[in-house]
């Protein structure tokens, strides 16, 4: 079992290490914007004192972008619970939607988001070319050797 808590200073080392490993962090790019994940709010899923998942988000203009969603233990309900918790926080902050982007190669995440109530609302063609200008270490190939080219934007109205 896990508990969902606001990210606290004691969680940051684990989160920063996971972002470095999974995302070549701490900087990430979405929709042409460079985000420093070390400065973002979010929630951690904690089990037996260890971070087993987390979500980071950015609120602006009545919208909440989920910039990073990570679960280190799949099929435990962590990712869905983190999305739900972030959506509740966004609603309390007056947001009208939560949204996120993933890359065209991330078929696992695309299925996951749709099963959790997010809808594909836009495809940003060749967005990864622009992203590589801001973050050159983004690889040319992603999951299953699929060329990383586009951003898929998903949203949930709240």
Produce the secondary structure layout.
Blueprint (H helix, E strand, L loop, with lengths): L2 E4 L2 H15 L3 E4 L2 E4 L4 E7 L2 E11 L2 E9 L6 H15 L4 E7 L3 H9 L3 E6 L2 H8 L16 E7 L1
Parallel strand pairs: 6-7
Antiparallel strand pairs: 1-4, 2-3, 4-5, 5-6, 7-9, 8-9
* Main sheet: strand order: 1-4-5-6-7-9-8
Bin the strand percentage.
35-45%
CATH superfamily: Gcn5-related N-acetyltransferase (GNAT)
Distance between the termini: 27 Å
Low-confidence stretches: none
Tally of helical runs: 4
Q: Tell me the radius of gyration.
A: 15 Å
What is the level-2 CATH architecture name? 3-Layer(aba) Sandwich
CATH fold topology: Aminopeptidase
Give the count of structural domains: 1
The CATH class is Alpha Beta
Helix content: 25-40%
Average pLDDT number: 96
The major β-sheet equals:
7 strands, mixed
Structural class: alpha+beta
Explain the overall architecture.
The chain has one domain: 3-Layer(aba) Sandwich (Aminopeptidase). It is 30% helix and 37% strand. A hairpin with a 2-residue loop joins β2 and β3. It is globular, with a radius of gyration of 15 Å.
Short recap of the structure:
With 158 residues, this protein is an alpha+beta fold. It is 30% helix and 37% strand. The chain has one domain (3-157): Gcn5-related N-acetyltransferase (GNAT) (Aminopeptidase, 3-Layer(aba) Sandwich).
